[in-house]
Amino acid sequence: MNKKLLAIAVGAAVAMPMAAIADVSIYGRAHVSVDYLDDGDDYGEMNVSSNSSRLGFKGEKDFGGISGIFQVEGEITFNQGDSSLSSRDTFVGVKGDFGMFRVGQFDSPFKRARGPANLFGDQVGDMRNLTRVGDARFDERLPNTLHYQTPSFDGLQVNIAYSVHESTFNRDGLDPDGNDRTKDDAISASVTYKAGALDAALAYEVYGENVTRGERNAIRLALAYQVTDPLKLVAFYQTVDHDTNDNLDADVYGLGAEFKVSPKNYVRGMWLTRDADNDDLSTDLVALGFEHRIDRALRVYANYAVAMNDDAIALTPWQQGRSTNAPGANGEDASGLSLGLRYDF
Predict the structure, then answer these.
(1) How far apart are CA 340 and CA 321, in angstroms?
(2) Which residues pair with 159 in a beta bridge?
(3) Which residue has the higher pLDDT, 167 or 122?
(4) Residue 175: DSSP 8-state
(5) What tens digit of pLDDT does each residue of 133-156 get?
(6) How far apart are CA 308 and CA 282, in angstroms?
(7) Could you state, in order of their start, the residue ranges of all structural domains in the chain?
(8) How far, in Å, CA of 31 to CA of 343, rounded?
(9) pTM of the model
(10) What are phi and psi of 9, to 5 degrees?
């Protein structure tokens, strides 16, 4: 605990002089839920989960046509009182008419590309429960990363990022655990377009040779279309090719909708399927939810989601983006009922 307090004090000490020379703000999100989770086999329990809750510091200073930017963001687990000062998007960079360039650890362009279709992010029913499976991991926050984002050209933007490596290596060529040194580099790129009723993102990500989780690449497409003021339709597609484990090759695709019942009340639903190349490894995910927005910064919701597994797979609708990590059971339907509260500040 003393080490954590010291880390927070150091962070505050760093931020104070920055406040004198830059526009520095403190922000965060407190997102918790009470869930009943059932693996369809022998587990059925009540849980409390902290769902990607965070606390951050960010700043910007104009130097005459070019601005310096920084951000330090950490996860806060409100259900257990734990924290990490810089575990989330943390970077330093510059931006201007040329676009933005930054260095640090942050969501890859591929990860952010799910945004248009992300109706249940950090909740029971999150699509990452199907898109981020085992060593076929692409929804990542990449460390040691260089990222360039172009200016917006009438709603069109390009992002490209290069992660030099995932680990911190010592001088003798071994990682901190004494394993053989691996490169673990990645290239992630996206093209996004947002104008009028259309919000779209197309992304590609590749991990080359000598990587811990195996050589792999993926393509992702996410679409949202505001049909009318109350009705939004979304669609999603992802294909993964894992060079060293055929069991992880799969396509994920599906459709969803969000309907604004009244200015403060929303209903939403989504169906997704993970169509694996090999037999008995596919899963369907169905999620339904109701959300009441007390204010733009404060909302409550109720969700129900179920993952319907083939005989040799055990996915759940609750493990991604949340502190709950209860496993599923092969061949069983795993379901979750969730009551949540989210406060953005």
Answers:
(1) 14
(2) 149, 190
(3) 122
(4) -
(5) 999 888 999 999 999 999 999 999
(6) 9
(7) 2-344
(8) 6
(9) 0.89
(10) -65, -40
